[in-house]
Amino acid sequence: MRYLHQQQVVHRDLAARNVLVFKDDWVKITDFGLSRQVESDYYMLQTRRGLPLLWTAPEVKDDNRFYKESDVWSYGVTLWEVFSDGTDPIIQHDGDPSGSGTMLANHTAFLRHGERLPNIDGCAERVYALMQRCWQWDKHMRPTFPQIVDEVSQWRGALLGER
């Protein structure tokens, strides 16, 4: 994702279903059907057809503009999917009488009120903290992919040093 953003490309569909594990520490991003080259800071959506709503950042839903920071939001959701063993990223809400989290029409409203996906059993706090930073409502408060790569590289270095 860092490389794509350096090339001024937004993926617009980053999700676990579009990530292939090539080797233990090497993954490949796939499905570039929604990807677009950005000439300014954003890509203006032409249609919402096929938009993956549960992975979509609030600014896309609000103003139809997809930014690099919108991919960062999706990365946080994708990371959550990985640690939840592929669970659908539906926010459970106390107001959902079925308890199934199917109130998708209110998904953006839940996000606006600060609700986010919960931490997953077994997920390290620092990983969940990264997810939460990716889900900042203000896109300018989200980390960039170079910052994410640096942070995750530091974790890996620390883990290797513990062996």
Automatic annotation (TrEMBL):
InterPro entries reported in the protein's UniProt record: Kinase-like_dom_sf, Prot_kinase_dom, RTK, Ser-Thr/Tyr_kinase_cat_dom, Tyr_kinase_AS, Tyr_kinase_cat_dom
Database matches in Pfam families: PK_Tyr_Ser-Thr
Origin superkingdom: Eukaryota
Domain Protein kinase: 1-156
Protein name, UniProt field: Fibroblast growth factor receptor-like
Organism annotation: Priapulus caudatus
